[in-house]
Task: structure prediction
Amino acid sequence: MRRLNSIRTLRGVTATTVVVHHVLIQDGQVFGQFRVDVFFVLSGFVIALALEASTVSVRDFIVSRVVRIVPLYWLATLLVFFGALLKPDLFNSTTANIPELLKSLFFIPYRKASGHVFPMLFVGWTLNYEMLFYAASALALWWFRRRLSFVLAAIALLLAGLFLVANLVHSDDAVVAVLAYDRVLEFPLGFAVWYAWKKGVRIPVALAAPGVVAMYCLMTWVERAWPDISPLLGNGLPTCLLLMSTLSLEDLLIDSALTRGLLYLGDASYAIYLSHPFVVEGMRKLIPKVAHGFDVRSPAGMTLAIVAASALGCAVYRYIDKPLQRLMRRLINVKRLVNAPASNEAPYRVR
Result:
């Protein structure tokens, strides 16, 4: 699959927006909620790009997604579980509960004591949607094989159907609540962006650069001016323009120290996303005990949080996430070799 530097850069910027959002949210301020919408639309675009390859199989697709998402998420979730077991006073509504741990590990939505539908690692709620999206994609790919247009249409219709049924049911069940949230419809928006991009639609550079800033500012303003607006309308549609503008700047990303730094942040964005709560909550609850007067919400505190969360995320990506992915791929491929039927054909090659 082609790696687009513009997309990697956007991921890096969005990852830092996540940190700012979780620093401010405890103060009742709203900023950066749209980072979820950016990731969801972007996920739809990336999956369409991956499925475009005529050689992709259902097995390869599932393996690639599981290897990418599961190992680091499971590790972070287990850290939260043992943290809640050893230091429950540092956690809010999270308890060291085995059934809740299992639901968190296997992406089954449930309600915490607070009433919120969050897994143990609270930022993992977005992964429940991602795994639903991947499951719908695998099912559509299995049914329609290599006919990409049918696959994408089937994914969109399946997600829309689940959303419609969940809204008609009117249940307070956690799974129904997840399916009834209109953000589930943002993944197909990424398909639309991919289709336009494949057809050669580009925004002129003179408009694309200010367009990126404008969409970012627009979604920030919408969050404050219309906090109850549907995320699909308030953030999902502007994200499509943000993504198109970003893609239109692909050829302008020259090799430089700044570009390399942003690209690495983008590659580490998933690790930053999963690890930054440990940094933010640690700075919120632990540092004030030794540095009186420290406030993570201050400009200095927020800057420190962004730098520390980014640095930790990059370290986790390099020394934990990537080795875990390699190990899991190796185990899966070894198992595939062991289970392969004997034949007189050329030996199976581990890729």
Observations:
- Residues 280 and 305 are 6 Å apart (CA to CA).
- The chain has one domain: 5-339.
